[in-house]
Amino acid sequence: IVPSVSTPEEAELAVKAVYYPPRGRRGMGLARAHMYGADFNGYLKRLQKEAVVVAMIENVQGVKNAERILGVDGIDAYFLGPYDLSASLGLNGKTSHPKVEKAIAEVRAAGKRANKPGGIHVVEPDPAALKRRIKEGFRFVAYSLETRIYDVNARAALRAARGS
pTM for the whole thing? Predict the structure, then answer.
Protein backbone atom coordinates (compact mmCIF):
# COMPACT_ATOMS: atom_id res chain seq x y z
CA ILE A 1 0.00 0.00 0.00
CA VAL A 2 1.68 3.16 -1.24
CA PRO A 3 0.57 6.47 0.30
CA SER A 4 -0.25 9.67 -1.59
CA VAL A 5 -0.13 8.42 -5.16
CA SER A 6 -1.07 11.52 -7.14
CA THR A 7 0.11 10.81 -10.68
CA PRO A 8 0.55 7.85 -13.01
CA GLU A 9 4.31 8.44 -12.84
CA GLU A 10 4.21 7.96 -9.05
CA ALA A 11 2.12 4.80 -9.57
CA GLU A 12 4.76 3.48 -11.98
CA LEU A 13 7.49 4.17 -9.42
CA ALA A 14 5.47 2.29 -6.79
CA VAL A 15 5.22 -0.76 -9.03
CA LYS A 16 8.92 -0.60 -9.85
CA ALA A 17 9.75 -0.51 -6.13
CA VAL A 18 7.99 -3.86 -5.63
CA TYR A 19 9.63 -5.83 -8.42
CA TYR A 20 13.21 -6.78 -9.26
CA PRO A 21 14.79 -5.94 -12.62
CA PRO A 22 13.93 -6.08 -15.42
CA ARG A 23 10.31 -5.24 -14.44
CA GLY A 24 11.28 -3.08 -11.50
CA ARG A 25 14.19 -1.53 -9.73
CA ARG A 26 14.01 -3.12 -6.31
CA GLY A 27 17.35 -3.84 -4.68
CA MET A 28 18.60 -7.41 -4.54
CA GLY A 29 19.73 -7.39 -0.90
CA LEU A 30 19.43 -10.50 1.23
CA ALA A 31 16.24 -10.65 3.26
CA ARG A 32 14.16 -12.94 5.40
CA ALA A 33 11.46 -13.16 2.68
CA HIS A 34 13.75 -15.34 0.58
CA MET A 35 15.57 -16.97 3.50
CA TYR A 36 18.57 -14.69 3.04
CA GLY A 37 19.19 -16.01 -0.44
CA ALA A 38 18.53 -19.69 0.25
CA ASP A 39 15.18 -19.57 -1.58
CA PHE A 40 15.62 -16.55 -3.81
CA ASN A 41 14.20 -18.24 -6.93
CA GLY A 42 11.16 -19.46 -5.01
CA TYR A 43 10.66 -15.98 -3.64
CA LEU A 44 10.85 -14.48 -7.14
CA LYS A 45 8.13 -16.86 -8.31
CA ARG A 46 5.92 -16.04 -5.31
CA LEU A 47 6.49 -12.32 -5.78
CA GLN A 48 5.47 -12.46 -9.44
CA LYS A 49 2.36 -14.45 -8.57
CA GLU A 50 1.30 -12.90 -5.25
CA ALA A 51 2.49 -9.29 -5.03
CA VAL A 52 -0.27 -6.72 -4.75
CA VAL A 53 0.35 -3.01 -5.26
CA VAL A 54 -2.29 -0.69 -3.84
CA ALA A 55 -2.23 3.02 -4.67
CA MET A 56 -3.56 5.26 -1.91
CA ILE A 57 -5.47 8.11 -3.49
CA GLU A 58 -5.82 10.79 -0.87
CA ASN A 59 -5.59 14.20 -2.50
CA VAL A 60 -7.23 16.30 -5.22
CA GLN A 61 -4.50 15.59 -7.76
CA GLY A 62 -4.86 11.84 -7.20
CA VAL A 63 -8.63 12.08 -7.69
CA LYS A 64 -8.15 13.98 -10.95
CA ASN A 65 -5.63 11.37 -12.12
CA ALA A 66 -7.45 8.31 -10.74
CA GLU A 67 -8.27 6.86 -14.15
CA ARG A 68 -4.65 7.15 -15.29
CA ILE A 69 -3.25 5.90 -11.97
CA LEU A 70 -5.46 2.83 -12.09
CA GLY A 71 -4.45 2.27 -15.70
CA VAL A 72 -0.82 1.71 -14.74
CA ASP A 73 0.20 -1.91 -15.28
CA GLY A 74 0.96 -3.38 -11.87
CA ILE A 75 -1.44 -1.25 -9.84
CA ASP A 76 -3.82 -3.88 -8.53
CA ALA A 77 -6.16 -1.82 -6.36
CA TYR A 78 -6.72 1.57 -4.77
CA PHE A 79 -7.36 2.75 -1.24
CA LEU A 80 -8.98 6.04 -0.30
CA GLY A 81 -7.80 8.10 2.66
CA PRO A 82 -10.76 10.38 3.47
CA TYR A 83 -8.96 12.41 6.15
CA ASP A 84 -6.13 13.49 3.89
CA LEU A 85 -8.57 13.87 1.01
CA SER A 86 -10.70 16.23 3.12
CA ALA A 87 -7.62 18.31 3.94
CA SER A 88 -6.62 18.43 0.28
CA LEU A 89 -10.06 19.88 -0.47
CA GLY A 90 -9.68 22.51 2.25
CA LEU A 91 -12.18 20.69 4.48
CA ASN A 92 -9.89 19.39 7.23
CA GLY A 93 -11.50 16.43 8.96
CA LYS A 94 -14.90 16.84 7.32
CA THR A 95 -14.83 13.40 5.80
CA SER A 96 -18.57 13.25 5.11
CA HIS A 97 -18.74 16.66 3.40
CA PRO A 98 -20.45 16.46 -0.03
CA LYS A 99 -17.24 17.52 -1.82
CA VAL A 100 -15.32 14.68 -0.14
CA GLU A 101 -18.10 12.23 -0.97
CA LYS A 102 -18.08 13.44 -4.59
CA ALA A 103 -14.32 12.85 -4.84
CA ILE A 104 -14.72 9.39 -3.32
CA ALA A 105 -17.46 8.60 -5.86
CA GLU A 106 -15.21 9.77 -8.72
CA VAL A 107 -12.41 7.45 -7.67
CA ARG A 108 -14.83 4.59 -7.08
CA ALA A 109 -16.20 5.08 -10.62
CA ALA A 110 -12.66 5.11 -12.05
CA GLY A 111 -11.94 1.89 -10.17
CA LYS A 112 -15.04 0.29 -11.57
CA ARG A 113 -14.10 1.28 -15.12
CA ALA A 114 -10.57 -0.08 -14.58
CA ASN A 115 -11.97 -3.23 -12.97
CA LYS A 116 -9.76 -2.63 -9.92
CA PRO A 117 -11.02 -3.23 -6.38
CA GLY A 118 -11.04 -0.40 -3.91
CA GLY A 119 -10.72 0.14 -0.23
CA ILE A 120 -11.47 2.99 2.11
CA HIS A 121 -10.88 4.04 5.68
CA VAL A 122 -14.07 4.49 7.70
CA VAL A 123 -12.59 6.88 10.23
CA GLU A 124 -15.33 7.07 12.85
CA PRO A 125 -16.48 3.80 14.45
CA ASP A 126 -19.90 3.84 12.81
CA PRO A 127 -21.40 0.46 11.81
CA ALA A 128 -23.88 2.17 9.45
CA ALA A 129 -21.03 3.91 7.59
CA LEU A 130 -19.15 0.61 7.41
CA LYS A 131 -22.20 -1.12 5.96
CA ARG A 132 -22.73 1.72 3.47
CA ARG A 133 -19.13 1.55 2.20
CA ILE A 134 -19.38 -2.20 1.73
CA LYS A 135 -22.69 -1.75 -0.10
CA GLU A 136 -21.01 0.85 -2.34
CA GLY A 137 -18.64 -1.88 -3.44
CA PHE A 138 -15.49 -1.29 -1.41
CA ARG A 139 -13.74 -4.65 -1.10
CA PHE A 140 -11.49 -3.85 1.86
CA VAL A 141 -12.19 -1.40 4.64
CA ALA A 142 -10.05 -0.09 7.45
CA TYR A 143 -12.53 0.36 10.26
CA SER A 144 -11.67 3.31 12.47
CA LEU A 145 -8.71 2.89 14.81
CA GLU A 146 -8.36 1.70 18.36
CA THR A 147 -8.14 5.11 19.98
CA ARG A 148 -11.32 6.34 18.25
CA ILE A 149 -13.20 3.15 19.15
CA TYR A 150 -12.09 3.43 22.80
CA ASP A 151 -12.89 7.14 22.92
CA VAL A 152 -16.37 6.83 21.39
CA ASN A 153 -17.31 3.89 23.60
CA ALA A 154 -15.86 5.42 26.78
CA ARG A 155 -17.76 8.68 26.18
CA ALA A 156 -20.99 6.75 25.51
CA ALA A 157 -20.52 4.79 28.74
CA LEU A 158 -19.85 8.00 30.67
CA ARG A 159 -23.01 9.64 29.24
CA ALA A 160 -25.02 6.53 30.18
CA ALA A 161 -23.56 6.52 33.69
CA ARG A 162 -24.48 10.18 34.11
CA GLY A 163 -27.97 9.46 32.90
CA SER A 164 -27.94 11.74 29.88
Answer: 0.90
